[in-house]
Amino acid sequence: MRIDVFTLFPEWFDWFRSQRHVRNAVELGSELRFFDYRETTPLSGRQVDDAPYGGGAGMVLRVDVVDAALRSAYERSGAPARVLLLAPSGRQFDEVLAGELAREPHVALLCGRYEGVDERVREHLATDAVSIGPYVLSGGELAAMVIADAVVRKLPGALGHAESPVEESFSEALGGAPEYPHYTRPATYRDWDVPEVLLSGDHERVRQWRLERSRERADR
Ligand code: ADE
Asked: Which of 19, 31, 134, 142 is nearest to 77 (CA)?
């Protein structure tokens, strides 16, 4: 899989790309690329934004700047089928969308900055607008990292053990419900005991107990 991130701050992602599961995915053939809008802007002085028509505070990322970045990146390979604009007003990101994206061979994430992004980016250049939650971040970079993280960990081999993403929160195995609680040693700490069933060695009882706890959490 290839994930392309378009941003004004590619260095924000240095930490992200150095993380173990991301390095695993890259070593196994996935690609994570970063494109700086300023490197391909058609404007002089590395300008990327402008004052909003109609007035108001702040600056708006220009559509010609975003278009130039996309054209430069995809003039040979063709654009990906999914080009996501990160915006607080977009479709709420969730595990279903993470799964959808992980099945794509190629995805682009467009980070916005400043007061916003010219609406024509959403109308003509992006295929989706996606939000990671009902709050406003100072830009799309953290949202892009959240999305890339949720997608990359689904790629085969990204997490050391192939099974680990199968029975986790919101997975099909749990009927889309949150994951059941986990416990490890010590079995008693202060006076906090691990549920007896988990120490029983009875796999069927453990399975039932986990399903019940998962469903309980879904109802909360
Ligand atoms: N950019 C600013 N806020 C955002 C959010 N909540 N989700 C995605 N992109 C954003």
From this structure: 31
Q: How far is the CA of 86 from the centre of ligand 1 (A)?
A: 6
Spell out where the chain has E strands.
Answer: 2-7, 31-36, 49-50, 60-61, 82-92, 106-110, 116-117, 128-131, 188-189, 192-193
This prediction's pTM: 0.92
pLDDT tens digits, residue range 54-82?
A: 999 999 999 999 999 999 999 999 999 99
**Which of 60, 114, 117, 137 should be mutated for ligand 1, with most atoms under 8 A from CB?**
137
Considering Cα of 209, then 210, then 214, then 217, what sign does the dihedral take? Answer: positive
Please count the CA atoms within 13 angstroms of the CA of 127 that sit on its side-chain side: 11
Q: What is the pLDDT of residues 110-143, one digit of tens each?
A: 999 867 999 999 999 999 999 999 999 999 999 9
Asked whether the beta carbons of 111 and 70 are under 8 A apart, the reply is no
